[in-house]
Amino acid sequence: MSQFIDINDCVTAYMDESEQGIHKQFKLSQLAFRCMDELGIDFFYKIKSARLPVKANFTVDLPSDYLNYTKVGVLNSKGEVIPLAFNNKLTTYADLFPNRVEKTQDLSLLNWAAPYSGIFFNFWNGSTFGNLYGVPSGAPFIGSFKVDITNNIILLNETFGYDYIILEYLANPVDGETYHVPLCFKESIIAYLAWKDIRSLPSTRRGNLGDKRDRRHEYYNERRLAFARYKPFRVEDAYQMNLENQRLTVKA
């Protein structure tokens, strides 16, 4: 049995349960995406990859459906993404100007440049993801970047030597596409749809205050159960916790 379920199956299940027509599908699909945000499982949105050109002012336009990056880098001879280092010291000043580099340099402080130690987030080491701190010993420094989400661009350091970057990013969800979530969240998503579907309606026979309150309570209860199933409590964890408590008791 699969441990994942299509988010559209949750929408269909609620529509069948509440005996609603296909005309409500778009509204309920948007509510389902909001529920993924609410539950903190929006990382199950699709990851896309794009090869983006670098402008003359060392900036790159972000895709219109961009939410967050997972990798920013260039390609090696094996088709692997070699990540750039995140550099929070890059300024967003004049980042929309064609002469951005000239406006953001002070040559009188050239010798005050501090040594760089970056962090590679979501670094793929061949088998798992992790964070890599600093530039690896013996590895060439390819470049650094910073995301200016306000102006929807990526900033690159002025010595970046490539005419492109590879961007892997979390994409904004689109109605009609397939998105899978862990099966344990199915009932909490259905409960969320049942609550939000009537929450903003005036108090009528279809959605009175008591019904709205009950549906809200049902959602938070299913949410609690979903998280408990998603991160189950194991006997080994309890055993280890007990040993740690005994060690601290003896030490005290």
Descriptive report:
The chain has 252 residues and is of the alpha+beta class. The chain folds into 2 domains: 4-43 and 174-251, no CATH class; 47-171, no CATH class. 33% of the residues lie in helices and 23% in strands. The protein contains 6 helices and 12 strands. It has helices at 7-18, 25-39, 100-103, 186-199, 209-230, 235-251; strands at 4-6, 47-53, 59-61, 66-75, 81-83, 85-86, 119-124, 129-133, 144-148, 153-156, 164-171, 180-182. The chain has a 4-stranded antiparallel β-sheet, with no helix packed on it. The chain has a 4-stranded mixed β-sheet with strand order 3-10-9-6, with no helix packed on it. A two-stranded antiparallel ribbon has the order 1-12. Strand 7 (119-124) and strand 8 (129-133) form a beta hairpin. The model is unreliable at 110-117 and 133-139 (pLDDT under 50).
Strand content: 15-25%
Number of domains: 2
- Biggest sheet, spatial arrangement of strands: 2-11-4-5
Helix coverage percent: 25-40%
Number of strands: 12
Radius of gyration: 24 Å
State the order of secondary-structure elements, H for helix, E for strand.
Answer: EHHEEEEEHEEEEEEHHH
- Find the structural class using helix and strand composition: alpha+beta
The stretches of 5 or more residues where confidence is low (pLDDT under 50) are 110-117, 133-139
N- to C-terminal distance: 48 Å
The biggest sheet amounts to: 4 strands, antiparallel
Mean pLDDT over the full residue set? 80
Count of alpha and pi helical runs: 6
